[in-house]
Design a protein that fits this description.
With about 525 residues, the protein is of the alpha+beta class. The chain folds into 3 domains: about 160 residues, no CATH class; about 190 residues, Serine Threonine Protein Phosphatase 5, Tetratricopeptide repeat, CATH 1.25.40; about 120 residues, TolA/TonB C-terminal domain, CATH 3.30.2420.10. The chain has 17 helices and 16 strands.
């Protein structure tokens, strides 16, 4: 809710019955805090970035809510050119890009005198642009790549009432090392449109916060919403889709991404195309492959992938303690180490159809959090010690989700013990951080705050990892301890994180400042990392 008289913004979480009111002048900066910011100093971007923005009137008009509107098109593109001499697997990343195409329908100038509501709407647009400052958010999102504020600056100059805005985002990004995707269809589509114009008075009650809603701080409000959304997303069924192909009567489960016990690797040099093929596999009660179908992948590699996977074996899937026939999805990779330059194939053509098929299976064969954990436990018991080691982070995480806190602690201790024997492994830093963070969360379940603080600091002593160094650590334990008033422990943890999360220096600065002021930081996406 926006109060023009008091210049205040009130945000309301109707699901959790929480609200927060802040000065309108703080809204833009506070919302920008929610967007991860990556430092660009010290050559963090190994190459160059080119940005280009064009804006023009299309000449098209349309009547929206009885108002004549004129269309303007904004196209902003961004290309990343990596420097020469990088690792060979980065060759496919040498030409990445993002493009935003925005269409804005604004009220024709002559309409303002005819439609009284446009005067108020135009006034709101000016107020919103001044106080909410959307340019900050765009700069924060794209600043690491050189800034894309030209697009929003152009929108800022338009003082007319905006009746409709559509934005399509196209991306060309690396999907995995050495493999690139090209989006011919928009990666994301967004539409905002006025659905009613009226100057009729409103009942004041709709602009009042219900009496049973609790006021909180901005940080608590946003972090709570993010946690609630993440929890509901995990618990919710996938969006409704059209029914897929009939599931055979003997198939009793769908367990994504089971790891094969034995595989045969294809010789990528025998094929002109590189890439990977995604398959849906039916695993028998004995763990053998009964059947397989292609979900996505380059056409020239599909038959070879089917031939490869038919010889694989898996751990059987259990239901009610007995092995059953189950579906899983898996990948077959075709790479040639001797080949130079970018791979000749693309990664996962038909990926949208693949996602739809897997959602259909999740709907038809749902699993509870307890069943997800049981499936992970069963799958982790096969193969060698490495298989078990790499499964432990997932096991402790899903044990927490299932409320199995004793198991979560056991898996965390096992992970930390195994990690000490694998200090040279890429996953060592993840194991140290995640194991101690899990033990801290388990300690909080029994109100052992002192142990939780100690485990938080032990988690911060990780040497880092490719994931931690890039995206930063998860902040769930830190957030929970802030709720208990343990600010010094959290500040000490931030200081430890600086040693490995070089890219997150400015983020840690902002979080530390918030804690020193007695506020709760907005942890953004880091709140839902392991």
């Amino acid at each position: 809710m926006a109060d023009f008289v008091k210049n205040e913004i009130t945000l309301i979480d109707a699901e959790r019955k929480r609200y927060v009111t802040i000065p309108a002048s703080e809204y833009g900066p506070r919302m920008a805090e929610m967007i991860p910011k990556v430092d660009t100093a010290d050559g963090q971007i190994p190459g160059s970035v080119q940005n280009k923005c064009d804006s023009s009137k299309t000449g098209r008009t349309e009547v929206i809510q009885g108002v004549q509107a004129e269309e303007r098109e904004h196209t902003c593109s961004q290309q990343v050119k990596l420097t020469e001499g990088m690792q060979q697997e980065a060759a496919a990343m040498a030409d990445l890009g993002t493009k935003f195409v925005t269409h804005v329908w604004s009220a024709s100038p002559s309409e303002r005198a005819r439609v009284p509501a446009l005067w108020q709407l135009s006034g709101y647009e000016v107020w919103r642009k001044y106080f909410m400052n959307p340019t900050q958010a765009v700069d924060r999102i794209m600043g690491v790549m050189g800034g894309m504020s030209t697009m929003t600056e152009d929108l800022q100059e338009d003082q007319s009432a905006i009746l409709r805005l559509t934005m399509d985002m196209y991306m060309k990004t690396p999907s995995m090392p050495g493999v690139t995707t090209t989006a011919s269809e928009p990666t994301m589509k967004m539409t905002l449109e006025i659905d009613e114009l009226s100057t009729a008075p409103l009942d004041d009650s709709i602009l009042q916060v219900p009496a049973d809603y609790a006021e909180t701080t901005f940080g608590d409000f946003t972090n709570g919403m993010m946690q609630a959304l993440a929890k509901s997303a995990k618990a919710a069924k996938p969006p409704a889709t059209q029914p897929g192909p009939a599931i055979p009567a003997n198939v009793k489960a769908y367990v994504p991404s089971l790891k094969p016990l034995s595989t045969t690797e294809p010789d990528g040099s025998a094929y002109e195309t590189e890439g990977s093929v995604e398959l849906l596999v039916s695993v028998s009660p004995k763990g053998t492959v009964e059947s397989a179908e292609v979900l996505s992948g380059p056409e020239p590699l599909r038959n070879a992938a089917l031939n490869q996977v038919r010889n694989w074996t898996f751990r059987p899937v259990l239901r009610d303690g007995a092995p059953v026939t189950a579906y899983t999805d898996t990948l077959v990779f075709f790479t040639d180490p001797k080949r130079t330059g970018p791979p000749s194939g693309q990664f996962w053509p038909n990926i949208a159809a693949s996602w739809t098929r897997k959602m259909q299976l999740e709907q038809a064969l749902p699993r509870s959090p307890q069943q997800v954990l049981a499936d992970l436990e069963q799958d982790s018991l096969g193969g060698d010690k490495d298989r078990r080691y790499y499964a432990l982070s997932d096991l402790e995480y899903f044990a927490l989700q299932a409320g199995a806190y004793d198991k979560a602690a056991d898996y965390a201790h096992e992970l930390l013990s195994d990690a000490e024997r694998k200090k040279e492994d890429w996953n060592y830093g993840n194991a140290i951080h995640n194991g101690h963070a899990t033990l801290g969360l388990v300690a909080l379940r029994s109100d052992d705050v002192a142990t939780a603080c100690q485990e938080l600091l032990e988690a911060g002593k990780t040497p880092g990892s490719p994931q931690l160094n890039s995206f930063g650590p998860g902040m769930t334990l830190a957030n929970e301890l802030l709720k208990r008033g343990e600010r010094e422990a959290v500040l000490d943890y931030f200081a430890l994180c600086r040693k490995f999360w070089k890219l997150g220096g400015s983020q840690l600065d902002a979080w530390s400042d918030a804690v020193r002021k007695g506020e709760t930081p907005v942890f953004g996406g880091n709140l839902n990392l392991p």
